[in-house]
Amino acid sequence: MIRLTDKTLTRRALLLGAATSSALAAFSFPARAIDSNKATKVLDTWYKLLLELIRHTATYSPPVASRAFAYLGVTVFEAVASGNPDFRSMAGQVNGLAPVPPRDNAPYDEACILHGALVHSMNAHFGNTGPTGQRAMLAMTKKLDSLAAEGTAPEVVTRSMAYGLAVSEHILAWSANDGGAVIENMGFPFDYALTEGPAHWVPTSTVAVQQKPLLPNWGQNRPFTLPQGDLCGLPTPIDYSEDPTSTFYADAMDVYETSKSLTDDQKAIARFWSDDPMLSPTPPGHWVSIAMQIFERDATPLPLQVETLALLGMAIADGFIACWRSKYEVDLLRPITYIRRVIDPKWEPLLNTPPFPEFPSGHSSQSGAAAGVLAALFGTNFAFTDATHADDGLKPREFASFQAAAEEAAISRLYGGIHFRPAIDMGLKQGSCVAGYVLKVNTRA
Predict the structure, then answer these.
(1) Does 199 lie in the same domain as 144?
(2) pLDDT (tens digit, 9 = 90+) per residue, 383-424?
(3) What is the pTM of this model?
(4) Is 160 part of a structural domain of the chain?
(5) What is the total count of domains within the chain?
(6) Residue 398 lies in a domain
(7) Are residues 208 and 344 in the same domain?
(8) Domain boundaries, position 354
(9) 170-175: long-range pairs with CB below 8 Å, 24+
């Protein structure tokens, strides 16, 4: 089981400590590990900072975070695959991706390639993060410059860093026209006409910017693996009704009555999977965190790490694109709106309601996609302990499988009072559909 130890550098120490050279000394690596595991150290260290930057960058709502994980995952995979005969490039398989530049017939260092790629990619994706994040990236670059170059001839370091940069530039150029590259007003449109009728979404927050819904056009973005003719769409949910004998009313009562009888464990589940922006690495970051904990526990080889990060990244990104397309096609109101209108005007859910339509559940869609991909890579009955929120004082949770974790993440939204049950069930089905497309990508020769 994955456990955090006293020697594990905490998330807060990573971001805040990396901003000063003295605190960054905490990132010391055993000399023997440097020789054999430089590349995995570089990858792990940058990705830990990635999770923290997402937590501290205002534009990184869950869909935006999923996009960054996908492009960074493809970047590190293609960088490694270019020199690994056991791998096959995803170019020509993933929508719009052309082959990355080939390596020259000369020696390369994998750690330096990854470092060169990630320095460039991280600064490109997080150019708008705050001063602390900027200082952390600069300090991390300097620290990992030394780690990556240790024991490697200067000309190999230069060649490898330049190649990593070239791969990053190639992937970023591909990303530029996908529809999600520019985020204005933190993702909330300046103008948006609400759909008329009682069944449709209305604002549930008093925050001024959230009087418009988050990223209404995200579902139109170019997906990574989904064909444009099939974005894993869902059947239209049941008809809206305020009749106490209707199925819709029964679904609302399910949310209401569940909220009134929550056990301590159900409350813990709701909070564990809440993953609110600016307070966590977001829901997609939670699944990347799970993968990274597995890497650390099992000393996962570098090739499987980058393959996982690429496929997982694309799964959660396509999960959000498919989910957001469905959300704005259906445009269903949230439980808090219905329950206060029809059942109990003073009702309060356990969690804050996100500012966008209800159906389907984003947690469910992306968790179903993530679980499907991770199960294919590591096994259907792969047990693990998730300590993603240990720094926040939330107890780790144990799971017998990725599917069990996905189902808990999904049902957490019922416990939180955020979703009706059909959105949860159908979201998981949508995520499974997404995983099926991602797993058609052949990463191995």
Answers:
(1) no
(2) 999 999 999 999 999 999 999 999 999 999 999 999 999 999
(3) 0.93
(4) yes
(5) 2
(6) yes
(7) yes
(8) 192-438
(9) 170/78, 170/98, 170/100, 170/101, 171/71, 171/74, 171/75, 171/78, 171/100, 171/121, 172/71, 172/120, 172/121, 172/124, 174/96, 174/97, 174/98, 175/67, 175/71
